[in-house]
């Protein structure tokens, strides 16, 4: 039997002698113009997408990442969300969750066309939203895409890989400034912000840079077993709306409406919404 190991490495990784292994039944490797892509069929995690040696998506735990990158921000809006921008997100999981909030339009800008093509074929339960008529799929550089946009989006979601290769520019203050400008006056930005345990400095840097740009910044935590250390984070930057300011009664109502219409969620619920923003002391300790 073959095993795949993600050896933890790269910019900002603080665990350099650690990795995660999975038993593999079969594998397919290809090189895209942007990265190395590995598609694994595994014993425990179903199909797994690996980019440049880093696990991105597994069929077994993808719901955690995709529900939690989307719903905390979306449930913060007291009104219907009209236009959402997803940067990255090639597997389609984020778009699938966003569509549950019935936006008028979702624009997704992914740099690597081959990732989308593979995911459409190999992960239909994750990528199924990409064919929806409200979804406009563009291939290109998300960093460039937001540069000339003004007051256009209710919500911008950055669903990117680690800060190595094509994603580096998505961790920088000038990018966050352009996103601020591209958002409507009550717009919200959310990005995946790495592991507060395994990539503590990178995580803190994202929060710090966002604090230079957005008046409200709220990091929050999730558990993702196949990512480094299992402890993962997302960070919201918001112009006006505070995810912690949503009244429990209003959130409860919106949540019940959504699950009646779309079916049960597997991770997110109103208790998780508030609880995810509780951060243990070590994350922001003095160095
Ligand atoms: N994007 C974040 C993956 C980061 C994982 N890092 C790692 N394994 N070293 C996931 C994309 C899912 N749509």
From TrEMBL:
Keyword entries, A-Z = Polyamine biosynthesis, Spermidine biosynthesis, Transferase
What are the GO MF terms of this UniProt record? spermidine synthase activity
EC id: 2.5.1.16
- Keyword Transferase listed? The answer is yes
Query: Pathway, according to UniProt?
Result: Amine and polyamine biosynthesis; spermidine biosynthesis; spermidine from putrescine: step 1/1
| Residues that, per the record, bind S-methyl-5'-thioadenosine | 35, 110, 141-142, 166
Q: Which PANTHER family match?
A: SPERMIDINE SYNTHASE (PTHR11558:SF11), SPERMIDINE/SPERMINE SYNTHASE (PTHR11558)
- InterPro entries named among the record's database cross-references: PABS, PABS_CS, SAM-dependent_MTases_sf, Spermi_synthase, Spermidine_synt_N, Spermidine_synt_N_sf
Q: How does it assemble?
A: Homodimer or homotetramer.
This chain's protein is named Polyamine aminopropyltransferase
| Active-site residues per Swiss-Prot or TrEMBL entry | 159 (proton acceptor)
User: Where, by residue number, does spermidine bind?
Assistant: 66, 91, 159-162
Its gene is speE
Function of this protein?
Answer: Catalyzes the irreversible transfer of a propylamine group from the amino donor S-adenosylmethioninamine (decarboxy-AdoMet) to putrescine (1,4-diaminobutane) to yield spermidine.
Q: Which family does it belong to?
A: Belongs to the spermidine/spermine synthase family.
Q: Where is the PABS domain?
A: 1-239
Query: Which biological process, per GO, is one annotated for this protein?
Result: spermidine biosynthetic process
Q: Which reaction does it catalyse?
A: S-adenosyl 3-(methylsulfanyl)propylamine + putrescine = S-methyl-5'-thioadenosine + spermidine + H(+)
Keyword Ribonucleoprotein: yes or no?
A: no
